[in-house]
Amino acid sequence: MLHFLPSPIIAFVNALALCLNTLFWCIPLYSAVIARLLIPIKSWQRLCSKTAVSIAESWISVNNVMFDATHKIEWRVSWPEGLKPDDWYMVISNHQSWTDIFVLQYLFNRKIPFLKFFIKHDLIYVPVIGLAWWGLEFPFMKRYSKKTLEKKPHLKGKDLETTRKACAKFKDSPVAIMNFLEGTRFTPEKHDKQDSPYGRLLKPKSGGIAFALAALDQQMQKIIDVTIAYPEGNYQFWDFFSGKTQVIAVNIQERVIPESILNGDYANDPEFKVAFQSYITDLWLEKDAQLERLLAH
Questions:
Q1: What is the domain-level CATH number for residue 161?
Q2: Helix/strand/coil (H/E/C) assignment for every residue in the chain
Q3: How many beta carbons lie within 10 A of that of residue 219, not counting itself?
Q4: pLDDT of amino acid 219
Q5: pTM above 0.85, yes or no
Q6: Is the pLDDT at 195 greater than 80, yes or no?
Q7: 50-59, 134-143, 149-158: which range is least confident on average?
Q8: Residue 177: which domain range?
Q9: What is the spatial distance between Cα 169 and Cα 153, in angstroms, rounded to a whole number?
């Protein structure tokens, strides 16, 4: 509808609309979170959490209408059958830019449980949305550098223990936990620095997902494996915000997690750790080939 406008104007419209939409929905969201904190009754807290999630889904729905109005995107999406909004899913994806998050929210909103991302702990201080993520019970991760662990060895394993505690909250109600296994956005420089064996992916990290699955105690038995491609190459966030992105190709597969991967101690069982890493490596090899096919078409 507005995609004929010059890209700087589209970017301004999207930025303004996103800010206003966020501020509008944060007011009822904060209210639901405060109500949850004030009355320590489990049934009430569950109701407040569901209300907060419904508000967040409404925020995404309005964002989607906004992007439809300012973009003319050709979506090439391959869907599996049988996705449910009341099941538990571990969602994994390659990661190229902040655009990926809007793509995932656009595609999955109200089709599966509300997506909850692993977020770096420092992002809790982002104005407005940092508190919203906290209120929506996103799992926050606090990673420590090798130098920090050398100076303070008692912090070793603390990040994974935090993951376990955060994910334990999701046993009582369906959830979709989103994990970018590469841990950071792909760039050619990072790819070269890692000496990655994959053509278009960084090396995956398996510890976080292993501990999340263990924390949920077999509640989560399915993976939604997402491969996102931008055939035109303009996948930077500002390109998307400016309406320049014309084609987005996405392959979505639902996978049942093997029993051998669900039952094991990643931290203390070396054989299980190797088997789990091998499983993730196989997924990543397949994803690398899938990404190549999406870009070729």
A1: 3.40.1130
A2: CCCCCCHHHHHHHHHHHHHHHHHHHHHHHHHHHHHHHHCCCHHHHHHHHHHHHHHHHHHHHHHHHHHHHHCCCEEEEECCCCCCCCCCEEEEECCCCCHHHHHHHHHHCCCCCCEEECEEHHHHHCCCHHHHHHHCCCCEECCCCHHHHHHCHHHCCHHHHHHHHHHHHHHCCCCEEEEECCCCCCCHHHHHHHCCCCCCCCCCCCHHHHHHHHHCCCCCCEEEEEEEECCCCCCCHHHHHCCCCCEEEEEEEEEECCHHHHCCCCCCCHHHHHHHHHHHHHHHHHHHHHHHHHHHC
A3: 15
A4: 78
A5: yes
A6: yes
A7: 149-158
A8: 73-296
A9: 28
**Residue 33 domain-assigned?**
no
Percentage, residues of the chain above pLDDT 90: 55
Q: Give the total number of structural domains in the chain.
A: 1
Answer yes or no: is 18 within a domain: no
pLDDT at position 211, please?
Answer: 79
Q: How far apart are CA 106 and CA 101, in angstroms?
A: 8
Examine the pLDDT at 170 and tell me if it is beyond 90: no
In a domain, 34, yes or no: no
Residue 149 has what pLDDT?
Answer: 63
Quick one: average pLDDT of 207-225? 83
In a domain, 115, yes or no: yes
HSE-CB at 126 with a 13 A cutoff on CA atoms is: 11
Q: What is the mean pLDDT of the chain?
A: 88
How would you list the strands of the sheet with 247-256, edge to edge?
74-78, 247-256, 222-229, 89-93, 176-180, 115-117
Find all residues with CB under 8 Å of 33, minimum gap 6, and list them: 48, 52, 135
Antiparallel, parallel or unpaired: β 247-256 and 74-78: parallel
